[in-house]
Each structure stands twice: as C-alpha cells, then as structure tokens.
Amino acid sequence: MNPEDLDSLAEYSSPVLRGSEAVITITRPDLESNSYLSQLFGLSGESSKRLTHNWRDSAPEVHASWSGYLSAAKKEPGQLYVGSSLETAHRITDNHLGVSEFALDDEGARALYGARVAEPGRYGLNDGIPAGEEAPRRITSAAYLSNGLGYTNDRPARAFLVDLVEPGLGKSGVAGGAEVPLSTLLETPISDVHDPQFSPSGSRVSVISSLAPDHGEPDLRSTVWLLGGENPEALTLPRMSVSLHRWIDDETVLLVGNELTRDELDFVGQMPGLFVHELTTNTTRRLTDPETVAVASIRPQIVGHGIDGSILADASVIAGVDTDGATRIMSIDLAAESRTLGELNFLTDDTTVVNGFDVDGGSLVWTGETPTSPAVLNRLGLTGIGNLATGVDGCAPVTDDHVEVTDCDTTVKAHPAPANSVLPQVLSVDGAGGTITGWLAKPSGQGPFPVILNIHGGPFAQYTHGWFDETQVLTSAGYAVVYANPRGSGGRTRAWGTAVQGNMAAPAMADVLAVLDHALAGDSELDSSRLGVQGGSYGGYLTAMITATDHRFQAAIVERGYLDPASFVGTSDIGRFFTEEYTTRDRQAIAEQSPLAHASQVRTPSLVMHSELDFRCPLEQAQQYYAALQRAGVDTELLIFPGENHELSRSGQPLHRRQRFEAMIDWWDQHLAGDVDANLDDQTTSAIR
C-alpha cells in the first residue's frame, strides 16, 4: 500500500439484520474532497445495493414500523432521519450542533436522541458574534475539554424526545424544507448525557451520565439515569463507570462498564465487564470475571425471548470481548456470575477484530477486520437460546476444547486489500512478565531489510491481528515492521494491564525490545544495523524513553506523545487523573518516568509529529520535547498538522493522513537508506502474501 492508496480503503460497521438482508455502513476516505463518505448498503446473497445517498449516512436502526439513521450533508452536522423504512426516512431534527446518537421506540412511535446545546451567543448561534468575540468562559469544573471537540461546558450534551409521524401535506419531511417535528428537551443531569435507550415497553427512558456534578474534583463514576419525570433519577449502582446499557425488561438493565474498586479514580487496567442490575431489588450482579475478561465497547444483545417478549430462564447475552490481538463475539448465560475467559463460549475465531454485530432469529452478522482484509461482513447461523447456538441449515457444529462453535461463519463481503499487502508473522516471545504476543511484517522480495519497531498507544490498548494500514505502508516502502503487546496493554489480564502503574516505561520497554531482539535473532533477512523506532501517544512516550537509554536506533518518530507528565496534569482533557494514577503524585517518581526529564540523554535523530488541536496529548508536550532535543544537540524536526486532533492517524483529514505517511517514509528514507530489494513495483495483485 502506498500513501496515495488511502482512498482505496473502506470500513464496514454498524451491521443490522433486516430479514435476510444485512444493512451496514460503508465509510471511505476521499482524497479528492478531503473528507469521508459513508452510506448505508444492503447485502443479501450476491446482491448489494446502496440504500442512502447523502454525504455521511451511518448508524442504522431497523424495527417493524420505524427505521432510522444519522445523515449529514457535506461539511454539515448530522441530523436524525426516520421513516417506515431506511429508504423512505426523512429528516426529523434540525439541531444547530447536530445529533450524535439515538434510539427508537417502535410501538410508541418516538425517538430519543442526544445533541449538544450551545449557550446563547456561542458556536455560531448568533451570526453577529464571531468565535473570537465570544464572552469569556467561566470554568469551575475539573473536566471542561474533550479531544476532537474542544470546550464542553458551554455546549452540554442533552436528551430530546420527538414523536414520529409520516409527513403529511405540509413541508415536514420534504427535502429542502425547513419544517421538522417539534422535539422536547428533557430534564437531564447537569453533566453530559450519552447512550439514549428505551426499555422494551417504552415505559423507561434512560441515558448514561456522571453520578455527581463536576465541582472541581475528578470523579470517574457514572450511572444510568431515568428520564421523563420532573427530575432525572439515578440508578444506585456499585462504584463504577458505565459505558453502555441495554434494557432486558422494564425492571432489568444490562450494563457494560468498569468497577472502580479502590476509589472513584481507580481506572488503570480495569477490565470492562457485563453487569445485570435489578431495579426491584436494587442489586447488581457481574457476569464476567474482573481479572480475565474485558468486554468490548460494542452494545450487547439478548437472545432468548418468549412469544410475549419476556426473557426466558435460559436466555443468553451475545457480546464482544477483547482478547490478545482480537475482538471476538461470545455467548454467556444471563444467569452467569464472574465467568472467566476460559469459560466463555466464543462464536468467532481468535484473529478477527469485530467492531459490531446484530442477532435476529437464527442469524448473526458481524463487521470488522481480518488479517487479510481491512473490512469484512460475515454471517453465521445460530440455533437455541441457551449457552450457545450451534450450526443450522446443515452446518455441523464443531467442538474446539471447551468452546462449541459453528463452522458456518462465512464471509458475505470482504473489501480487497491494496497491492503489496503482506501477512504478518505472529511471534510468541518469553518475557520477564510472561509470554509476549508480537508480529513481524516483512516486505516482499529479498532482504536484508531495515527494521522499524512500532509501539501502540494506550497503554491499556493493543495491536491486533487485523489488517493495519500503517504496517502495510511501511512494508510497501521496503521496511520490516516489528510490533507487540507489552505489559500495560489490554486484551490480557488486569495484572498485565497494571504492570506499568507507577513504572510506565521499564516493563513495557523490556517487552518490546525483547520482541525486537527475538525477531532479529530469528530472521537473517532483518538488518540489525538499520533500526528505527516509532510510536504514537503512549507509544510516542515509550519511543522517547527508549531513545534516551538505548542508542542502537538510527532514527525515531515520536508522534502525539505523552512527553511531560507534570504539565499534562493541567493541559490534557484527562490530565487530572491519568498522570497521577499512572505515574503517582511523587515528584521524583514522575521525573524518573518523564521523557522530557531524560531528553538530554537522547542521541537518536527524532522526528516529532503532533496535531495542533490535540487535547489528549496537547501540542505543548511536543513543543517542550522538541526544544529539549534541540538544546541537547539532537538532529530533530517538528511536524505540526493544523486542524487535527489526537485521532489524526485514524480519522484525520484524508490529505493529512496521506501526508503523515509520506513524512514517515521520507524520514526513514533519510536515516535508514540502503539497498533494499522489496520488489516494490510489483502491482500484479491485491492479495495478501
């Protein structure tokens, strides 16, 4: 893959079953317009059809009477479209800052949606007041910024209800018409709300929000709030942070969230779990083990409804779980308690990276990535409603140890990988803290190849087996890439995730270098005299810490790095709790873990890349580090991307993403140049080799 091939990629997401048809969102970066295009497509058998035609359509929801999705014209905020079908849906909102998410009450013919509400005179509400002339912001809270958004306190996220009606003879629902149904702003908690939901009967209307208002002290607790009354009512949950919820019935809710076991800031290495809360008894039960199971941020579903809609005794929950290098779909009894990873029933294999799924009757569809494709839609058959459904339609069940799966997980549609894509080799390396999972990706052709050690962010995140554009761009340019999930990463156990708490660099540094050394020792095509190291966010942090102590690397790229823990406290959107939980509050300990404090020891030429509007790792982190490298006499450059935030490499403007790749390759070519026979002109196939 070359940088200019970026707009040949696509992402498949938000799958929904509509009878025999699977509806998905297909999103593509478009270099010509420097934006992203996304529309809804229906796929059934060999046929595929576009269902919507706006610039950005996403998040479909389908019911018997009503269906809806979010839609945005070019460079405009998204609005909610609802109708009797996706094809006939019309715009029913006109919120100034756009609609972010929604839920439909099919029988009640209502929509509940979330949207930010700007203070008068801000964010273009008054054309006569430009941004530079707005009134000063009076801030008393600990959290008031959000990466990718900016200030939040003067445009809180609120919940609205709107009745669904088919358009009559008026202008409502007519393309280009200004009329939309009247929405009702609900009484909500003071803090931002998200994840709007209806209970099955529609009698419960709920959102997730902070447990208490932010009066200047960080607090990660959140809960489900019931809306619709005179005042919002909070569910009484254990000390936890809730990310998603789904109503099982009108008195029982399924939660995805983290327990905050020590106090309201105890987030490091916490494994997101599945919880069931009973409103009648005010009790909460955890279905998954807090040490070994990390539930993915994908809305779970319930299978096992009776004819009357009630939940049967042997009902199951279908959910996503992050495992080492993958996100897999699993089934678990609704009655389970603290089920460990080894006790889960997995429906997908250990290399797929699922980003969404839907279950209807005997079918399950999922979207995500595989090692050979950047985007896939798969379908598998299910029977039963207990522990796990097994093969249907003549598909024989297959037993693999304790996990019973079906062999009917078939690909409906796979997006082709660009030319020169390679299949990385999985590495399993002994480390001081346990076995480390890593990968080696080599260019096609003959070596020896220069080698780049790439380090992921987080730290409680992970690389996966999924097709990765950054790896493919580097290998196509002639560079072998080594990457790994060291201690501190997600996808393993809580102990693995907390291994870097209070010592952010040393354990992870030892692990990534162990994987690099293993790859170099085991493959004669790797040139150990031409080594580079790069990483973003926490990966940028670890890159900077490595080059301060290990001088064998010819060059480095430090991207969007966490580089000065001390100033991070007062500048980052997560600074008030992240630094102190990971590096402690001890000044000496912080200095020992600070790349800025060690910058004078760096000898490695370093490209420092950062985004101008990064509020997660603010620009000042890069500016301070760049100045310190200059002071130390290091060959260094600072590359700043205007208008971008911390998500540049994932969802930044397509032109900037291409320019980022080009800058990386240019830097490596300058410092790791040599004779490389990578057969780079072979464009004969787009298959993974």
What does this structure look like?
It is a single chain. By secondary structure, this protein is mainly beta. The protein is built from 10 helices and 41 strands. The strands form 10 sheets. Strands 34-35-37-36-38-39-40-41 form an 8-stranded mixed sheet, with helices on both faces. Strand 5 and strand 6 (67-72) form a beta hairpin. Helix 5 (565-571) runs antiparallel to helix 6. The longest helix has 18 residues, at 654-671.
Distance between the termini: 13 Å
What ranges have pLDDT less than 50 throughout 5 or more consecutive residues?
A: 385-407, 676-689
The strand line-up of the biggest sheet is: 34-35-37-36-38-39-40-41
Shape from CA axes? Answer: globular
Average predicted confidence as pLDDT: 92
Could you estimate the helical fraction of the residues in percent? 10-25%
Please report the number of helical segments.
10
Which percent range describes the beta-strand content? 35-45%
Radius of gyration from the alpha-carbon trace, in angstroms:
25 Å
How many strand units? Answer: 41
Structural class call reads mainly beta
Major sheet attributes: 8 strands, mixed
